[in-house]
Amino acid sequence: MIGHLNLILRLAIWFLLTASLSVPNIIIGIAVALLLPGRPKTSESLKDWLRVLGEVLVAIPQAYFEAFEIMFRPHKYEDVIMERVKPQRTPGLIFLDIFLITFTPKTIVLKYHEEGSYEVHRISRRKRT
Hints:
Layout: H1 4-18, H2 23-35, H3 46-72, E1 77-84, H4 91-103, E2 107-113, E3 117-124
Antiparallel strand pairs: 1-3, 2-3
Keywords: Membrane, Transmembrane, Transmembrane helix
GO molecular function: monoatomic cation transmembrane transporter activity
Transmembrane segments: 12-36
């Protein structure tokens, strides 16, 4: 069985993909969310989820700021860095971490490594040493 927070995440993704809150779509979304295979129940902390959702809310104005910055001030340099996954992350929280990194215009996750790191491509105005 899946956890409540994973069910909510699956339904949110379903509604974002379908862009419909009709009764049949809600029924289909719940069925899909329940039928998708899940991992064994893990100890997910509500505190971790609330922290990540708070980071999502902070990322929205940051994304607008970065978009305007890219338009008005050229970013000529790019690099790929390895970023560590925070300890004890569940798959749902890892998904939200990747979403946060990719949501801002200056960074994108290229690959998630199972041993606990992300390959992140980023652009910058100055060459990093």
